[in-house]
Automatic annotation (TrEMBL):
Family statement: Belongs to the protein kinase superfamily. AGC Ser/Thr protein kinase family.
Organism domain of life: Eukaryota
PROSITE patterns: PROTEIN_KINASE_DOM, PROTEIN_KINASE_ST
Catalytic activity: L-seryl-[protein] + ATP = O-phospho-L-seryl-[protein] + ADP + H(+); L-threonyl-[protein] + ATP = O-phospho-L-threonyl-[protein] + ADP + H(+)
Lineage, broadest ranks: Eukaryota, Viridiplantae, Streptophyta, Embryophyta, Tracheophyta
Protein name: non-specific serine/threonine protein kinase
Keyword Ligase applies: no
EC top class named in words: transferase
Annotated InterPro entries: Prot_kinase_dom, Ser/Thr_kinase_AS
Residues annotated as domain Protein kinase: 21-356
GO molecular function, one term: ATP binding
Sequence segments annotated as region (Disordered): 404-424
Length: 424
C-alpha cells in the first residue's frame, strides 16, 4: 500500500513506513483513536518501542473527527519542532517520532509511556477511592503538569482536557501530557499572561539525576513516599462532554465550544461564556483535589447535578483542615475566571503559590526517583527475543487490524468518538 507522508514542519524526516513497523498490542482506545505499542525494524531512527496512535478515517462519520486528528498531529509536530531558544523536546509533553497517512488511516508515533496513567495509578493504590496521593506526590505531579501547561500556554494552546487519564507516566516515573485533540489555539487577545517556556533539559540528555528531596523541600510527613508497583487498570470511562458550539461574534478571541470531561468542565464553559487559558487552571484545581482526596469535588448523580455543583458549590474538604493545598485548590476553583489564580499572572502566578514553595522548577526533569516508578517491563527484551526467534510471526500489521475490524462490522455504526465529538 502506498503511504504518503503528511506535510508538516519538522526538521527531520518523520515519515513512517508501515511496512517496517509491527504492533505488539493495543495500549488503549479513546474517542478519537486506537493506540498501539509498536516496534520498528532495527537499524532505523525510531526507538525499539513506541506508541502509535491511529485514526481510522473510514470509521469516522463526522468530518470534525478527522480535523481533530489532524490538529493533534500538527500540534505534536509543533511541539517537536525545536526553536533555537528551546532546542530539546519538552520533558513533559510528547514529541512526534513519525507519522503516516494512507487512504484509510492517519497515524503518528509518540514515546511509549510504560507506567500507565495517573488515574490507573491512583486506583491501583486506593481502589476504594478514599485515600489518594501523599502531599509530596501530589506536589510532584502538579508541578510537572504546571510546567507542561506553561509551555502549551506560551505557544497559545489551551489544553482543555486535563484529567488524570491524560497524564501518562514514563518508565522514568515522570509525566507526559497526552491527548491533544480537544486542545485549541487561542489568538493573542484572549491570552492571559503566560511566561515563555523554561529552558528545560531533555530527558534524553544524560545528566546527573537528582533526588526528589533536592528539588522539593519536603516535610517529614511527606517523606513517606512508598514505592508501588503499577497495576495496569483500564481507566474508568468518564464521560467527555461536547455539544454545540455557541456562536459568538467574538469567537476568534475565545473558544466557545463545549468540550471536556464533565467533572473537569469549568463554570464559564457550562455557562457558555467562551473561555481562555483559565479553563486549564480550573482543571488543575479539580485534578489537585482528585489526586489528594480520591474524588472530584463537584460530582453529582447526573450531568445536570454536576454542572449545578460546578456553578454554585464551593469545594468542600474532608476534615476541614486548612493547608497550602486546600488554599491552592480554592484559588484555582474560583468560579469567575478573571479572579481565578493564573488568570492575570499566568503560569508564574500559579507557580508562585505557597503550595509550590521550594520547588526548583528547572530541576524537575532531573528527579531520579519520582514518587512512583513503573515496574521494569521486559517487553523490550521480549520483542528482541521474538524478533530473533521468528521475524515473521512478530506482532501484527495495524492496517490488517483495521481491515479485520471493518470485515467484522461491514456497516460501521457511529463510533463513540463521532457521537461525543458531535458539533464541535
Ligand atoms: N504514549 C502512550 N503510551 C502508553 N499508552 C498510551 C500512550 N498514548 C495513549 N495511550 C493509551 O491509549 C489510550 C487512548 O489514547 P488517547 O487518549 O490519546 O486517545 P483518544 O482517542 O484521543 O482518547 P480520548 O477519548 O481521551 O480523546 C490512553 O488512555 C492510554 O491508555
Amino acid at each position: 500500500m502506498m503511504c504518503r507522508p503528511i506535510k508538516i514542519q519538522m526538521e527531520d524526516d518523520v515519515a513512517l513506513d508501515l511496512d517496517r513497523i509491527r504492533a505488539v498490542r493495543v495500549l488503549g482506545r479513546g474517542a478519537l483513536g486506537t493506540v498501539f505499542l509498536v516496534t520498528a525494524a532495527t537499524g532505523g531512527r525510531l526507538p525499539p518501542l513506541f506508541a502509535l496512535k491511529v485514526f481510522d478515517k473510514r470509521s469516522a462519520t463526522k468530518p470534525h473527527a478527522l480535523r481533530r486528528a489532524r490538529w493533534e498531529l500538527s500540534l505534536l509536530s509543533r511541539l517537536s519542532a525545536a526553536p533555537r531558544d528551546h532546542p530539546h523536546p519538552h520533558p513533559f509533553l510528547p514529541s512526534l517520532l513519525g507519522c503516516v497517512e494512507t487512504p484509510d488511516l492517519l497515524a503518528w508515533a509518540i514515546p511509549f509511556c510504560s507506567g500507565g496513567d495517573l488515574h490507573a495509578l491512583r486506583r491501583s493504590l486506593s481502589p476504594s477511592d478514599e485515600e489518594a496521593f501523599s502531599p509530596a506526590a501530589t506536589r510532584f505531579y502538579l508541578s510537572e503538569i504546571v510546567v507542561g501547561l506553561t509551555h502549551l500556554h506560551s505557544i497559545r494552546v489551551a489544553y482543555r482536557d486535563l484529567k488524570p487519564e491524560n497524564i501518562l507516566l514514563r518508565s522514568s516515573g515522570h509525566i507526559m501530557l497526552a491527548d491533544f485533540d480537544l486542545s485549541r489555539h487561542l489568538p493573542p487577545r484572549s491570552i492571559t499572561a503566560s511566561s515563555p517556556p523554561p529552558p528545560l533539559p531533555s530527558d534524553n540528555i544524560r545528566r546527573p539525576l537528582r533526588k526528589l528531596t533536592r528539588v522539593f523541600s519536603l516535610g517529614a510527613a511527606d517523606n513517606q513516599i512508598k514505592q508501588a508497583r503499577l497495576a495496569r487498570v483500564s481507566p474508568a470511562g468518564r464521560r467527555r462532554t461536547s455539544s454545540s458550539s455557541i456562536s459568538h461574534s467574538d469567537a476568534e478571541e475565545r473558544s466557545f465550544s463545549f468540550v471536556g470531561t464533565e467533572e473537569y468542565v469549568a463554570p464559564e464553559v457550562v455557562r457558555g461564556e467562551g473561555h481562555g487559558f483559565a479553563v486549564d487552571w480550573w482543571a488543575l484545581g479539580i485534578l489537585a483535589y482528585e489526586l489528594a482526596y480520591g474524588r472530584t469535588p463537584f460530582r453529582g448523580r447526573n450531568r445536570k447535578e454536576t454542572f449545578r455543583n460546578v456553578l454554585t458549590r464551593p469545594p468542600l474538604f474532608p476534615g476541614r483542615r486548612r493547608t497550602d493545598l486546600t488554599d491552592l485548590i480554592e484559588r484555582l476553583l474560583v468560579k469567575d475566571p478573571e479572579r481565578r489564580l493564573g488568570f492575570t499572572g499566568g503560569a508564574e502566578e500559579v507557580k508562585g503559590h505557597p503550595f509550590f514553595h521550594g520547588v526548583k522548577w528547572e530541576l524537575l526533569p532531573e528527579v531520579a526517583r519520582p514518587p512512583f516508578m513503573a515496574p521494569v517491563i521486559d517487553e523490550e527484551e521480549e520483542v528482541e527475543q521474538e524478533r530473533s526467534n521468528n521475524e515473521r510471526a512478530m506482532g501484527f500489521d495495524v492496517r490488517d487490524y483495521f481491515k479485520g475490524l471493518r470485515q467484522r462490522e461491514p456497516t460501521v455504526p457511529p463510533s463513540r468518538s463521532s457521537e461525543s465529538l458531535e458539533d464541535f
